[in-house]
Automatic annotation (TrEMBL):
Its EC number is 4.4.1.14. This is 1-aminocyclopropane-1-carboxylate synthase. Belongs to the class-I pyridoxal-phosphate-dependent aminotransferase family. The keyword Kinase does not apply. Coiled coil: none annotated. Residues 50-364 form the Aminotransferase class I/classII large domain. It catalyses: S-adenosyl-L-methionine = 1-aminocyclopropane-1-carboxylate + S-methyl-5'-thioadenosine + H(+).
Length: 368
């Protein structure tokens, strides 16, 4: 196709479809493409590319596979479970199965040490954390509005948060000199800079545990963030998809635990969750929005019609996540295996002269 034909074809398409907002041509995705074209193999292709840009937890699949074998009724594709096939396969509304929402709420609590409880009626489904983050943006912001994001942050946030919504990202500059602590001063500076540029700031979004630092935010920092967003009357979105990957001290403190003891406006607090990292199930596309704002729950649930979790997946996971013995064993085993893998990896880097940042969670090892 000639250049003029290509230009004409693009003019027939929408601005979103032809924009570069997806980021597929960025360095972040270049690494993925290089791996796809030339994957490393220790014997067959030792000169190939090693995939280090994908945070995927594959350490405890054996536990899940063992559970599936012992619980054939959880699947509608087995002789034991096929009697539920029709009930699962027919139309389901966007609220999701009640037992699935209950199971997710229960698992979220256990993944946070049982120190907080979650209301199943506030669980909103979405297609993975990618869809959940975008759904929140559609609910909270208009095109051109912005969210502050402490650096360093997940590079695909530009796509997830802004490609289709038109929402902007304004970085909050955090410094390695204080281990990238999110300070009130840095938040104020980013907010004021946006104001001077006539950018309407609608909120702050954080990842806790952090992607890519692999660290957890302390209670003082979380309280400071809540105070900041309350003073500005803007939203706080907490991406907590690595909540159950904490493998060493300090322990994990989630935003729900913090606001229990604070005088704050709960309508400003929203959580994004997923089973992609904690359980290593990104292919099942289980994303969750949990909001303390009734309007966001109701509106988000309507929007979730465009990216529901399949009813077959809901059916199976409801049984799995409500199995208290399995969940307890999985969370304990996963944490131990992550700690061991982190230790082996960082020690190996040290042996070749690469020092790592101290981390206690997630699937990351940052080096200096």
């Amino acid at each position: 196709m000639g250049s003029s034909s290509a230009t004409e074809n693009r003019q027939l398409l929408s601005k979103i479809a032809t924009s570069e907002g997806h980021g597929e041509n960025s360095p972040y995705f270049d690494g993925w493409k290089a791996y796809d074209l030339n994957p490393f193999h220790p014997t067959k292709n030792p000169e190939g590319v090693i995939q280090m840009g994908l945070a995927e937890n594959q350490l405890s699949f054996d536990l899940i596979e063992d559970w599936i074998k012992k619980n054939p009724r959880a699947s509608i594709c087995t002789p034991e479970g096929v009697e539920e096939f029709k009930n699962v396969a027919i139309f389901q509304d966007y609220h999701g199965f009640p037992e699935f929402r209950k199971a997710v709420a229960t698992f979220m609590s256990k993944a946070r040490g049982g120190r907080v409880t979650f209301d199943p009626n506030r669980v909103v489904m979405s297609g993975g954390a990618t869809g959940a983050n975008e759904l929140v943006m559609f609910c909270l912001a208009d095109p051109g509005d912005a969210f502050l994001i402490p650096s360093p942050y997940y590079p695909a946030f530009y796509r997830d948060l802004g490609w289709r919504t038109g929402v902007q990202i304004v970085p909050v500059d955090c410094d390695s000199s204080n281990n990238f602590k999110i300070t009130k001063e840095a938040l104020e500076a980013a907010y004021e800079k946006a104001q001077k540029n006539n950018i309407n700031v609608k909120g702050v979004i954080i990842t806790n545990p952090s992607n890519p630092l692999g660290t957890t935010l302390d209670r003082d920092t979380l309280e400071s963030l809540v105070e900041f967003i309350n003073q500005k009357n803007i939203h706080l979105v907490c991406d907590e998809i690595y909540a159950a990957t904490v493998f060493s001290s300090p322990t994990y403190t989630c935003i729900s635990e913090v606001i229990q003891n604070m005088n704050c406006n709960p309508n400003l607090i929203h959580i994004v969750y997923s089973l992609s990292k904690d359980m290593g199930l990104p292919g099942l596309r289980v994303g969750i929005v949990y909001s303390y704002n009734d309007d966001v729950v109701n509106i988000g649930r309507k929007m979730s019609s465009f990216g529901l979790v399949s009813s077959q997946t809901q059916h199976m996971l409801a049984s799995m996540l409500l199995d208290e013995e399995f969940v307890a064993r999985f969370l304990e085993t996963s944490s131990k295996r992550l700690a061991k893998r982190h230790g082996v990896f960082t020690k190996g880097l040290e042996e070749v002269g690469i020092n790592c940042l101290k981390s206690n969670a997630g699937l990351f090892a940052g080096w200096t």
